[in-house]
Amino acid sequence: MTITWSQDTGPTTGRRPEIELSWHRCRLAGVDPATAPQRLTAQEVDDGSAFLAAAAPVLERLHEDLTDTGHVVMLTDRACAIVHRWTDSRGAESALDLLGAVPGAVLAEDVLGTNAPGTATETGRAIVVHGSEHFAEDLKRFSCYGLPVRHPLTRRIEGVLDVTSVAERADPLLAPLLRRAVSDIEERLLDAGRASERHLLRAYQAAAARRGAAVVALDDEVVVASRAALDLLSPEDYAALRVVVRDLVSGLGGRDAVAHLPLTSGREVSVHAQRVAGTDHGAVVLLRPSADRVGGGPLGSTSAADLHPADAGTAPVLVAGPTGSGRTTTARAAAGPAAPVLDAVRALVLGPVRRAQALRDLLSTPEPVVVVENVDVLPAD
Length: 381
Hints:
Layout: H1 17-28, H2 50-65, E1 72-76, E2 82-86, H3 90-99, H4 109-112, H5 116-123, E3 127-129, E4 143-150, E5 157-165, H6 174-192, H7 195-207, E6 215-218, E7 223-225, H8 227-232, H9 237-249, E8 256-262, E9 268-275, E10 283-289, H10 297-300, H11 309-314, H12 327-335, E11 341-343, H13 344-349, H14 352-363, E12 371-373
Parallel strand pairs: 11-12
Antiparallel strand pairs: 1-2, 1-5, 3-4, 4-5, 6-7, 6-10, 8-9, 9-10
Helix pairs in contact: 2-6
């Protein structure tokens, strides 16, 4: 993690580029530098949150390190609301109270202007803001560091750890102290994470090994998606996907299931879901854009009558067609009732080593013909 400490300034303003960009966002958001703190409002703080529980011991150590230094330690959550504030300086405490920066106050950049917690939340990057670099006039007496705290599994920002002082410039010696504290909080978040999240992440990593695959892993709380899936789904699609997947995997045991899901974009995808053992309703999902279903024509013309087990046994045979065209039924009919079957969607979750072993086991059977469903999802290797 790198704290922004650029010495470069804009060609005309004299401000560092990251500060100039923040000021530009503030202007676009309509922030008034003369009255910004008046917009601060406090909301209720969840003292029992998992984030605060993970951070608590680290914050205690940070308090000890900063005792008698006049610094303020603040922790904000995903909404940039203050969930923890500590200082042993009565002057700093009074200054923040007067400003309205109390527990529950939202320090978002589009509310308060340029400030370390708000700007770090906005950009997802660590930053230091010296006194005069604050957009709001009432903040220019403060200098502050802000470092995002990310969940190690999801890489989602859980909040920002901030150290503020009443000074014209922030002390650069604080940077390594804050980096260590953030690292410790993230480690505790990982340790506190449910075992099901770790199972889900491992299953996702195995399924997403194929480049370009649209893969989503999700349970009741966590969603992890590949770049291809992000490009395919809009934010509104995830709620519908969660419902469809939960219905699919309910009572399935280790088997996979398929459904069709219309997207807000107007497209339709086939949803291939595989339950992940050891999770709370967790599943790994492979998404495929659905072609129009056809009963005949080039893609749908292959039928069981066209293939026979003897033909299939002489050389590899590919039965192709869009989802719902009957390709699985055709392949199984051609291979014969005794032919062993491996679904590549399920094999994809196994990872490369176990997947290779499953294929070897399949090919070592005495049957002359085997069926591999959804073969197109397998990695090239």
